[in-house]
Amino acid sequence: MTDTPTTHVVFLLFSGITQLDFTAPAQALSRMPGAVIAGVAAALDPIPTDSGFAIVPTHDFASAPQADILCVPGGHGVADALGDTATIDFIARQSENALWVTSVCTGAFLLGRAGLLAGKRATTHWAYTHLLPLVGAEPVKGRVVEDGNVVTSGGVTSGLDFALTLIARLRGDAVAQAIQLAIEYDPAPPFPGGHPDRAPKAITAGLKEHVYDAAAARMEAALSSA
Amino acid sequence: MTDTPTTHVVFLLFSGITQLDFTAPAQALSRMPGAVIAGVAAALDPIPTDSGFAIVPTHDFASAPQADILCVPGGHGVADALGDTATIDFIARQSENALWVTSVCTGAFLLGRAGLLAGKRATTHWAYTHLLPLVGAEPVKGRVVEDGNVVTSGGVTSGLDFALTLIARLRGDAVAQAIQLAIEYDPAPPFPGGHPDRAPKAITAGLKEHVYDAAAARMEAALSSA
């Protein structure tokens, strides 16, 4: 038998993170043989999430291990994080020696601000895909989009599909299938419309009007400022 | 316009929780209008999860709000929690006035130990369904199983389907559809086999041999002790 390699998976944590962008891929990747999960933030204080509870970072920027897989989640906190030099520097520094540079949801824009999506095919949450050219990326339809060692995924729940895809790449299909079965990932969404291509038009329109038009404008403003 | 009712959603947290059992439904339910999420543990110290990071409880057992929705997640820590009187008492006490008594994955056995599944149709993680009669429940196939105000769901990732189902029940289909679209829950698992009914037989057999035969035996022993 060959030894299982150690794979350091480094997730960025920040205030206002959409916690499932982190917790779903962390669940799958933590079961990958050899994986060591780190949740890294600017400081070690608990990170408030969007879901009413806080997560404790395992490391701060200074003490973080070098990532084999760097993963940047999204959330409403991304617009503020885009202006935080220490955060962007951490992403840029880690990416230099990471084997895989990845994002879930609007985490793509933090990769982009760090210069990692220039000329890359990429995706993000459906309500923000039109902003990807602002970081030099080419928006591509797809729940998980690969371009070289850069893997971006769609909104929130796509992180699970992303993680299993990456596990299959790193450890083979059988390992990924076993993890998928262990977490009983046999989804049965109660409605068919988890993407605007399939959702009732009124649901999409209402969500844009009440949430995403303003949120996307805020992201655009943050991306357009130096 | 009518006022949106406040709905207290109380999740039990305990050492060795499968964090996605909690974080996935918390993500969906936190976006339900009027929802207030609590993560409640015996004490306020951070709770180590199975995925390499810790979660901070919002309340301890004494300070927890009365649940409208009580939700008990699962995990390898369930076998120990079954023997913890304070935990079982908390579940029993909260359930008396909860509108909905629910579980994800092996959290069902904690509901069962508190006497809440006697004579009820229920489900749990696929590797443990045969143990449901030990708490007086009737195992039923289904990713989300309702019996009166008791709602149990299957392994780990089923918590998302459970939460959206409950949101539809409480606030209507349009609200649940909007949340499903907001979290882009349009799953695309890389493999078809997230349940033994659909997984390659060798994958299921390997997982049972290496993980679940021992884990189910440990659960059975914990359920069989007084």
Automatic annotation (TrEMBL), chains A, B:
Residues 8-168 form the DJ-1/PfpI domain. It comes from the Bacteria. GO terms for biological process: regulation of DNA-templated transcription. SUPFAM superfamilies: Class I glutamine amidotransferase-like. Pfam families: DJ-1_PfpI. InterPro entries: Class_I_gatase-like (IPR029062), DJ-1/PfpI (IPR002818), INH-QAR (IPR052158). This is ThiJ/PfpI. The lineage of its organism: Bacteria, Pseudomonadati, Pseudomonadota, Alphaproteobacteria, Sphingomonadales.
